[in-house]
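Worked example

This section walks through a single chain of length 132. The input is the sequence exactly as stored; nothing has been trimmed or padded.
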Amino acid sequence: MSTTGQPDSVMPAPLIERITAAIIDIIIVIGLCFFPRIGWMFGIIYHLTKDSLPLLKGQSLGKQLLNIRTLAMPQKVPLSVYPEKSVIRGLVMLIPILNIIDAWFLLSKGYRLADKWAQTTVVFVHDDESEL
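Given that input, the structure is written out below as tokens.
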């Protein structure tokens, strides 16, 4: 860890961890949508802000379970510092044609189109990053 509190090097999270975390988060969103009347709003809000929630240290619940995190680049800081980047990443998944293109980018190139647009990357969380 550097003196600025930022990780010196980042190790990209493998595809399987990213997909598993996404599935966990989708299950949470679907579960929230079952609450009467306003559940769908909570589901959308969670989906759009899940990687920037200060309560969760800038991680979604799925990412927290798998020890991965989304960082804003080039600063290498959690998205709790830049919540708009989390919204950009979430919006891509809500637009049908974009989420198909996004999945193709992830499977063929190893990064999401949303990561490129929001200037983010998904990395492993090291033990010394737990205070971020």
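What to look for: The two ends are 11 Å apart (CA to CA).
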